[in-house]
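lol forgot to send this yesterday, sorry. C-alpha cells for the thing we talked abt
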C-alpha cells in the first residue's frame, strides 16, 4: 500500500512536471507570437466598446398617488418664495424624498426680488438614485408658484399668486412617485431628481428672463465640474386632461437624438398625449442647462403658454384658474410611465448609441 502509493505519487509528480513544461513553453510561444503580430501590423488601439446596461422590469406608475401629491401642494396654497406655503413645501419635499434615498441635497441661495431691495430666499432640492453610476440622466421640474396671475382675464387679479396646479405641482407629483418606485427598485442608470425653485418669478416686461429659471441658473453655476449627466428631461405643465406634448425647438437644437429617444419611446407605448406632428418653441428651465452643455428635452404642454389652445378649458396659464379641475390622473400616468420605461428599459439598452 505504502510503496504503491509512493510510486503513484512519483508518477503523478512526473506527469505534472511534464504538463507544467508544456504549459510554460506554450506561454513563451504565445508571448512571442503576440509580439510578432504587434510589430508587423502596428494596429492603433481600438475605441472602448461601451456595453449596453441590462434593462430591468419597469415598475408600475401609481397615477393616483401622483395626482394626490399634486392636490396636496395646491391645498397648501401658492408656493411663492418668502411665504409660509413655500417653506412648507420645501420641508414636505425633503421629508418625502429622504424616505426614498439618503442622497438628498439641499441648496439654499438668495436672489434680488421685486421691488428692488427685496431678497428672495430660495431652495433647490435634488435627490439622487444609483449615485455611483456614471451614465446619468437629470430629471427637472419647478415647485415654486408664480407670484402674479398676470395673464388672468381680470386685470384686478394680476398681482395675486397662481394656484399652480399644472404649472408646478403636476411635475412634482410625477417626480415624487418616481422617487418612491426607485427606492424599491434601484434604477440601472443613475437618476437625479431636481426640484428647482424660482422658475416662474420673473416679469418679462421689466427684465426679460433675468429673474426666471433662478434655481436652475444657481444649479449650473455651482455644480461640481465632474457632474455631467448625459442629458436632462424637464417636466413643465404635465397634467392637463387634454395635454398635447410635442417636441420643443430648443430641445431639438440641443440634442435631437434625445428628443427622438423620448418621443419614439412614447410612440412605442402608444401614449395618446404625445405626438410629433409639429414643434413648439418655449423659453423654459432647460435653457440654462443647455447653455451649460447639458442637452435637455422639455416635455411641456406648449399650447397652454400664451393661451394658444382653441379649447376654452385650456386657457388658464398664469391665471387664478390653474386648478386641479383641469388635470387628470391619466395624463400624469402617461408621463410617469414614459419616464419609467426610459429609465428601466430604453436608456439602458441604448447607452452605447447615445
Ligand atoms: Zn409658469
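and heres what i got for the seq, position by position
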Amino acid at each position: 500500500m505504502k510503496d504503491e502509493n509512493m510510486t503513484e505519487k512519483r508518477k503523478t509528480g512526473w506527469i505534472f512536471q511534464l504538463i507544467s513544461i508544456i504549459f510554460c513553453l506554450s506561454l513563451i510561444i504565445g508571448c512571442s507570437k503576440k509580439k510578432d503580430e504587434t510589430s508587423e501590423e502596428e494596429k492603433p488601439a481600438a475605441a472602448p466598446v461601451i456595453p449596453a446596461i441590462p434593462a430591468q422590469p419597469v415598475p408600475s406608475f401609481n397615477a393616483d398617488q401622483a395626482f394626490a401629491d399634486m392636490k396636496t401642494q395646491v391645498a397648501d396654497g401658492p408656493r411663492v418664495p418668502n411665504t409660509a406655503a413655500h417653506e412648507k413645501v420645501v420641508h414636505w419635499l425633503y421629508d418625502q424624498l429622504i424616505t426614498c434615498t439618503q442622497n438628498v441635497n439641499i441648496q439654499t441661495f438668495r436672489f434680488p426680488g421685486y421691488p428692488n431691495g427685496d431678497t428672495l430666499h430660495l431652495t433647490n432640492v435634488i435627490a439622487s438614485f444609483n449615485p455611483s453610476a456614471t451614465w446619468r440622466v437629470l430629471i427637472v421640474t419647478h415647485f415654486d408658484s408664480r407670484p402674479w396671475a398676470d395673464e388672468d382675464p381680470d386685470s384686478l387679479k394680476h398681482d395675486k399668486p397662481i394656484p399652480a396646479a399644472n404649472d408646478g405641482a403636476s411635475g412634482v407629483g410625477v417626480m415624487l412617485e418616481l422617487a418612491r418606485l426607485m427606492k424599491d427598485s434601484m434604477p440601472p442608470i443613475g437618476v437625479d431628481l431636481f426640484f428647482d425653485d424660482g422658475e416662474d418669478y420673473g416679469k418679462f416686461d421689466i427684465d426679460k428672463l433675468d429673474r426666471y429659471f433662478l434655481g436652475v441658473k444657481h444649479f449650473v453655476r455651482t455644480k461640481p465640474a465632474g457632474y455631467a449627466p448625459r442629458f436632462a428631461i424637464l417636466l413643465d405643465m404635465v397634467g392637463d386632461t387634454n395635454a398635447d406634448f410635442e417636441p420643443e425647438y430648443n430641445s431639438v437644437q440641443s440634442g435631437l437624438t434625445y428628443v427622438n429617444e423620448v418621443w419614439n419611446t412614447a410612440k412605442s407605448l402608444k401614449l395618446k398625449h404625445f405626438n410629433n406632428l409639429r414643434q413648439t418653441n418655449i423659453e423654459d428651465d432647460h435653457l440654462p442647462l443647455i447653455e451649460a452643455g447639458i442637452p435637455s428635452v422639455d416635455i411641456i404642454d406648449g399650447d397652454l403658454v400664451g393661451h394658444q389652445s382653441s379649447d376654452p378649458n385650456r386657457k388658464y396659464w398664469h391665471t387664478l384658474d390653474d386648478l386641479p379641475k383641469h388635470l387628470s390622473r391619466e395624463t400624469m400616468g402617461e408621463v410617469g410611465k414614459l419616464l419609467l420605461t426610459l429609465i428601466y428599459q430604453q436608456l439602458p439598452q441604448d447607452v452605447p448609441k447615445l
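The longest helix spans residues 2-41. anyway ping me if u want another try
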